[in-house]
Amino acid sequence: MNKKKDIYWIKNALYLAKHAESKGEVPVGAVLVLNDKKISEGWNCSILSKDPTAHAEIIALRKGAQILNNYRLVNTTLYVTLEPCLMCLGAILNSRIKKLVYGACDNTNNKKNFWKILLRKNVIEVTNNILHNKCSYLIKNFFKKKDY
């Protein structure tokens, strides 16, 4: 585990999350990396695109698959500001990424059983709580302003 590298890429994802927020979207950003190079990126745009699947992770995975010309994103790492939802976890699993790194934990969804399966089968390496406070503040502050 290279924490400096994880921090660097989560900072990139935070920049994208702030971009999403500036557009009125839920502030989540994602960066897909291969061999220390950014392959693709995404930010939430479900509201503007009127697409419930337009989450940051899905967008980054789709773009990455197009760039790599393969739906299997072997040996890549996905960096996300917020713990992925179940839909995104399914896409992450199907994409065959090597590692998932995220900032803030999402306490709104119960994904404990899904995580247990992923970790037990060693399907992907998972690192969490990278820049947790910054990522958490961004998402909490967004919803506080929206008064949800």
Automatic annotation (TrEMBL):
The keyword Zinc is annotated on this UniProt entry: yes
CDD domains to which the protein is assigned, alphabetical: nucleoside_deaminase
Cross-referenced SUPFAM superfamilies: Cytidine deaminase-like
BP term (GO), one: tRNA wobble adenosine to inosine editing
Entries under Pfam families matching the protein: dCMP_cyt_deam_1
GO terms assigned for molecular function: tRNA-specific adenosine-34 deaminase activity; zinc ion binding
Record key words, sorted: Metal-binding, Zinc
Domain of life of the source: Bacteria
Annotated CMP/dCMP-type deaminase domain residues: 4-126
Protein name listed in UniProt: tRNA-specific adenosine deaminase
Organism of this sequence: Buchnera aphidicola
